[in-house]
Amino acid sequence: MKFDRWTVALATLGVVSWASAAKAEEKSSSVMTALSATTLSGYVDTSAQWNFGTGNTFLPPYKFGGAAKADGFNLDVVQLRLDKPLDEAEWAAGYRVDLWAGPDANTLGTQSTGIGTGSDFAIRQAYALLRMPLGNGLDWKVGVFDSIIGYESVESPSNPNYTRSYGHSIEPQTHTGVLATYHFTDLVSVSAGIADTVGPTINSRAQNGSTGNFALGVAPGANAYSESYKTYMGSLALTAPDSMGFLAGSTLYGGVVNGYNNSVLGTGAGMPTLNAYAGGTIATPVTGLRLGLAWDLLNVDTKPAGPPSKLEADVWSIATYASFQATEKLSFHGRFEYVTGDIDKATGLGVPAGGLTRFGSDNAIFALTGTVQYDLWKNVLSRIELRWDHVEHGTAFGSADAVGTPQAENAFMLAGNIIYKF
Hints:
By secondary structure, this protein is mainly β. The protein folds into 2 domains: about 1-35; about 40-420, Porin (Beta Barrel), CATH 2.40.160.10. It has 5 helices and 16 strands. The chain has helices at about 5-10, 20-35, 105-110, 165-170, 355-360; strands spanning about 40-50, 70-85, 95-100, 120-130, 140-145, 175-185, 190-195, 230-240, 250-260, 270-285, 290-300, 310-325, 330-345, 365-375, 380-395, 410-420. A hairpin with a 5-residue loop joins β14 (about 365-375) and β15 (about 380-395). The protein starts with a helix and ends with a strand. About 35% of the residues are buried.
């Protein structure tokens, strides 16, 4: 075995034994071999926003937005990723860790008990990857992982637009549990999993109940479920084969997540929820043009025995997407979305100003988003976005006046987004 000069000097002086030096070298070699397959990557996400008009009290309630980012410059989030993907071995193993730092980490809300939601730090994902040699290979994620449903990603650089859709805002974000994925062919795959809760808080439990929201009539610990109550999820993905001509590579995807959410849309009220999603991407005969479609449903229903005595909400959205790659560096992205919902609640039950009721109090919202992306610098994603949100009916952007007229019906925003990826 070959030793470095420092180890030889210490052994010669009798500071360490040759046997211990050999063991240390073997351990170091083993660690370096394991780390050699690990990659470090991530991004720094920054933005600037101008919200037209005066005051930021009545803004659209889509996720990762809000008054804190309006009319100023922002650090959105910094992501660090440590990743070792699965290799071709039959019993392959790997892992992924995604760490978030910055204001968006608080919005993500994965912080486990004791850290607090204002820490500017979150674990987005942290899971072990395992493969079993069953058929074509059964892959497992064990730990904290992104939700299996949705057109848009939690990871901003992967999305066609800077701001998030309403569909993304009502979807689950992350889960703590186990997820299995099996590829029948290159064209068909399925996933199924079980997790603690629908909500993002790491290691949360349905038997602990909600944190409480007295405006909704939900006391802390109310609506708790049994220790065996878990969240279940499943999805199916289909990819068009080469034989379908210009449609080759198009995808159809559907999934369902059902369980207990420890805080529904940030209300602090824990309730059983059902999320359903269907969507896909469509290739076209026009070079560089791709289309997308997404449908999302959120159903919330309180436990009959728990307070409030009656609270049920249904929110659904439908969105269409179009992306056109004009040149190697220049691309255009558009999104049109319609979201509506309604809450059926107990008589006299209070209604909070935000969270669930911003989507569900007999509201309907149209949203039109246009994004221009031009990658001028290497490793840098740069885009400008104009967004218009319009309340068709309801008070989704804020409370009504004395005669029931919404205080805000339109919201316009211009944003710039710079992301350095490494």
